[in-house]
Amino acid sequence: MTVLPLLALYLALAGWGAPWLLASSSWAVRAPRTAMVTWAALVLSFAAAVVMVVHAVSEPGHLRERPGRWLAWASAASPAEGAAGHDQALLLGSLAVMAVASVVGAGWVRAARIRARHRAVLAVASRQDAENDWCVVEDNRPAVWCVPGCGGQVVLTRGALQRLAPAHREAVVAHERAHLAGRHHLCVGAAKALGSAFSWLPLARRMAQQVPVLAEMAADDAALRHCTPRVLAEALCIVAGGGTPSGTLAAGSQAAVQRVHRLLQPTGPLPFAVRGAWWAALAVLPVVPVLLACGP
């Protein structure tokens, strides 16, 4: 079997098969942060595989070598040829990284502009709570959200203050502060930007759907340090239909029913050893296409 079929198979698995398996897996809801990192590792691995396919096609002579030999220094006719092959692979890899970074960066800039406009509106239409570090908007709908950037800001509507008991209020505010502390807006913004730019690719499309939900679950887990699962679930039910502005992160905005079910019928986190082994595998995953094509 030659290099190109192996890389094509890897592309199919990373771009089409693995996203379907990850999106439908039951373990992702038990370890949402690990699942988010898994999506990122799959994207990097898919990009690396695309680079290796382009490099293999651009060097037809390499396709006659067995996998793992055509770019190795020992298989080159001369050190100069080996260096040239490595230089080309490095250049293609740099271009791929720049392409992905430009898409993600553009998405972050668009989201930052939306949040800046929202902060300008809040400066006029909201008031700072005298006893707490959140601001209040005069709206009868119960809603709570946070605006990342510039130190972050937690926002509650008048309806939320009226309908949320003190314990519920503490739970949703802890949820929003977890978003701000974890910089979840960067993960969500990157996933949505890639999903929009590469909507034809199941990997990007499913990641854009899943990462926002996983970010909410990760914030739920952090909020449980300050409240019980039942209190947080009740708070989510209250604010789920309140609606939130674009560019913000809100406790009730994503998959509220699924998250309430997760809180009330917990399956427990993945064992530490399993998560550690999985993270070690994720660190290697983006290198696999390179090893298939270029390894010794």
TrEMBL record:
**Matches recorded under InterPro entries:** Beta-lactam_resp_regulator, Peptidase_M48
Q: Which family does it belong to?
A: Belongs to the peptidase M48 family.
Residue ranges of every copy of the Peptidase M48 domain listed in the record: 113-190
**Which protein, by its recorded name, is this?**
M56 family metallopeptidase
From which organism does this entry originate?
Kitasatospora nipponensis
Which cofactors does this gene product need? Answer: Zn(2+)
Tree of life domain: Bacteria
Does the UniProt entry include the keyword GTP-binding?
A: no
Read off the Gene3D superfamilies from this record: Metalloproteases ('zincins'), catalytic domain
Q: How is the cofactor bound?
A: Binds 1 zinc ion per subunit.
